[in-house]
Amino acid sequence: KYQSFWTLTANRKALATSEAHEIAEAKGLTPQTYMYAFLMSLGYATPLDGTTSRVHMAQDVAVMERIQGGEQILTEEDQIKFARLLGMPGL
To answer: Between vectors from CA 64 to CA 71 and to CA 13, what angle results, nearest 5°?
Structure first.
């Protein structure tokens, strides 16, 4: 698997958009945790978490545990929509 680092830093502008906030809030997530869920849902990328915040780490671990527990947080349509927002139209 590919381990993605600088994932949030490289996508700050996209994650700051109102669209990213709306998409994430609809799933009960922050744009950042939605990004992690998106990457994990692809099946070939594992985000490396570089946060120093206990709160953010707890949020990140919680979304990871949900996915590893079998919950499908993102549908295929969700993946495509978010990929476009990130500039990945070919997903």
So the answer is: 110
